[in-house]
Specification:
alpha/beta, about 10% strand
């Protein structure tokens, strides 16, 4: 089989997979129980966020949500503007950070457009998540996926695609927990608060957007 034909066949398979029904993984409940139990086992659990600028404000906001619940929390961040998970997987700093301390949970956040792009999801996001999740497990932590949101000007369409993409990646990894931040943003949009979620660029989260994101993590992790 020629190389061009193999590439076309692989791309066709990826596109067909992207058309499959997008249902939450059946093992999500088991994955959530694992995360909840892990966080409950420590008086000050450690959570590391690996991603890009969509994650910049989340650790601080999550510490505030934890404090409201009377919980101590160490929240770390390894994020660079515009980075993909593939870049983090190839960066030695990622391994260094994973070994820096005993993390309980490591949150993986992909570049915003990739989850709803079938080819990039199949050939960039999926292998990167597989690689990173294995290293997270080797470091003794539990990997979690951070489902982001659609851009303000095409929110509904993009948000649906992002959700579908994260759930497909979760299934490919045996049912990794997906924290449905994009769903929480969708509820805010339905309530008429879309403008409050975004910075003027229509992409990045405002302080209010970070609060909604952190509340979603807190509800999944502790409520």
């Amino acid at each position: 089989m020629s190389h061009p034909f193999r590439l076309i066949l692989a791309c066709a398979v990826a596109c067909l997979a992207s058309c499959a029904p997008s249902k939450p993984p059946r093992t999500t409940d088991a994955a959530r129980r694992e995360v909840v139990a892990r966080l409950a086992s420590s008086t000050e659990p450690s959570i590391l966020f690996i991603g890009n600028s969509y994650s910049f404000g989340v650790p601080r906001a999550l510490r505030a949500e934890a404090a409201k619940r009377g919980r101590a929390l160490h929240a770390g961040l390894l994020a660079k503007s515009g980075w993909t998970l593939a870049k983090h997987a190839a960066d030695p700093a990622t391994t260094t950070m994973l070994r820096q301390r005993r993390w309980d949970v490591v949150v993986l956040q992909e570049q915003s457009r990739i989850p709803c792009n079938p080819w990039r999801r199949a050939f960039s996001m999926r292998p990167a998540v597989k690689d990173l999740a294995a290293r997270v497990r080797e470091a003794g932590a539990v990997p979690v996926l951070y489902q982001t949101w659609g851009r303000r000007d095409r929110f509904e369409t993009m948000n649906s695609g992002v959700r579908k993409g994260y759930h497909q990646i979760s299934r490919s990894q045996g049912g990794m927990l997906v924290v449905p931040v994009g769903d929480a943003w969708e509820n805010e949009v339905a309530a008429g608060r879309k403008s409050m979620l975004f910075l003027p660029d229509g992409s990045h989260p405002s302080p209010y957007g970070n609060t909604i994101t952190a509340r979603t993590f807190a509800r999944v992790f502790w409520d």
